[in-house]
Design a protein that fits this description.
13% strand; two-stranded antiparallel ribbon; binds P-hydroxybenzoic acid; 15 helices; alpha/beta; disordered N terminus
Length: 435
């Protein structure tokens, strides 16, 4: 199935050339050398931590010094990525995180399949895996074959995934999703209209079993209905814990339901959920309160996209709006703030001061959007961010942590298999050891 390259990870392909330019020339050499490099790096950095200075010196004098030296240079270039990080109740061994990525491979009943367990388990060396966006209720679905977390079968399907990730030593949180007006009648239980804060038709198309169709004018939620949706978030968060997840991420980004409430282009309500910034953020505040009451703030993160125009949202004063949102996240004591630092539609950016948001939050700040290893490491070293969520590069490189650690080349990506299909382009990207 082909969809426009608008996946949940957002960044345009990470720039491998830049990675290559910065890396010692020998890193680009053939397989044999790569093997030696793996042996060298394993010898030097048994636990992925930078060894003490004396040890490094000794190592550099050894017979492996030629390989070791260039490996060390490469490692130093990106060293901060491989330091541990405490995120709420979770302890991450590194800061190379897997972004939420829609893959549209769920089975009947939108249940994650056994193959999903293998896909996520292959990526268990990520500091943290954030699952693909997962609908909290049938009305929250917007695309075909995306998984849910509202039925017993879905919980059981996800349990296979979390067990497999944990068996491989990883950590995984579930992203809680309601698409609001980005749904389509064909996904709605009684084929009614999708719901939204206001009856404003978004530009764009829905991807249905019949193919792409224009989005429709949604039905504005009655004030009295909103508490029910808040409760669905909490129930879904509880299901995520039953399914063995280490936590949840509230999806408040990319023009889906929560973002539709936040932004004034899509929210023109006149009740307590519309108008002022405080009112537009009330729905998110209630979701945060309900979810943290269910699973704990130390296991809850939130994702925002302050400058994103994807799905036809936009706010006239994003800095003020998202400073308020970040203040809510801070006062709730959320484990992390996950920020899409750009616009996945490729529109102009520069209206948001991300450093100010990071400072206002004060807790763990995960960045996403067009980061490569070098830029990520520099940003961590400067204190601008704490960790990076990589998107498309995690689709193509199950062992992304090892590759970045070694400065090894990344696998080519196959966008035609990003969405839909089965094993091809899902669980068959090779790891270095298979090369
Ligand atoms: C998607 O296109 O499936 C998609 C995009 C962005 C998201 C989630 C899903 O945040």
């Amino acid at each position: 199935m082909t969809r426009p390259s608008l996946d949940n990870s957002l960044p345009p392909a990470l720039n491998n050339d830049r990675l290559r330019e910065g890396a010692p020339r020998s890193i680009l050499a053939g397989r044999n050398r790569l093997r030696h490099r793996i042996i060298a790096v394993r010898t030097i950095f048994k636990c992925g931590k930078l060894p003490p200075y004396k040890k490094r010196r000794e190592c550099l004098r050894s017979e492996r010094s030629r390989f070791a030296l260039s490996t060390l240079e490469c490692f130093l270039m990106t060293a901060t990525l491989f330091t541990p990080l405490t995120v709420g109740d979770l302890h991450l061994p590194n800061r190379v995180l897997m972004a939420p990525l829609t893959r549209s491979r769920a089975g009947a009943g939108n249940v994650p399949q056994a193959i999903a367990a293998l896909y996520y388990a292959q990526r268990a060396t990520a500091g943290l895996i954030i699952s693909e966006a997962t609908q909290i209720c049938p009305e929250g679905q917007g695309y075909i074959l995306t998984p849910g977390i509202h039925s017993a079968e879905q919980v059981a399907g996800w349990k296979r995934v979390t067990d497999a990730v944990h068996a491989n030593g990883g950590r995984i949180v579930l992203q809680l999703w309601h698409v609001g007006r980005i749904s389509h009648r064909s996904f709605q239980p009684n084929h009614g209209l999708p719901v939204a804060p206001s009856a404003i038709k978004p530009a764009g198309q829905a991807y249905t079993t019949e193919g792409p169709v224009d989005l429709e004018t949604p039905r504005a939620l009655e004030t009295e209905e909103i508490a029910g949706i808040v409760a669905q978030y909490a129930t879904a968060a509880g299901h995520a814990m039953d399914a063995g997840f280490d936590g949840v991420e509230i999806h408040a980004a990319n023009g889906y339901l929560i973002d539709q409430f936040l932004c004034d282009k899509s929210n023109q309500r006149t009740d307590q959920y519309g108008g002022s910034i405080e009112n537009r953020a009330r729905f998110l505040a209630e979701v945060i309160a309900a979810v943290t009451a269910r699973v704990g703030a130390g296991r809850t993160g939130v994702r925002i996209s302050p400058e994103g125009r994807f799905n036809d949202v936009e706010d006239s004063a994003p800095q003020a709006l998202f400073e308020h949102v970040v203040a809510l996240a801070k006062s709730a004591g959320l484990a992390y703030l996950h920020v899409v630092e750009g616009d996945m539609t490729g529109g102009a950016v520069g209206r948001v001061d991300y450093l100010a948001l990071r400072r206002a939050f004060g807790g763990v700040y995960i960045a996403n959007h067009a980061y490569d290893a070098q830029r990520a490491s520099n940003a961590i070293a400067s204190g601008a961010i704490d960790a990076v969520a990589f998107g498309k590069d995690y689709i193509a490189n199950p062992d992304l942590v090892t590759r970045l650690l070694l400065g090894a080349p990344l696998n080519p990506q196959h966008p035609e298999t990003f969405y839909g299909g089965q094993a091809g382009g899902y669980i068959d990207y090779p790891a270095l050891t298979a090369l």
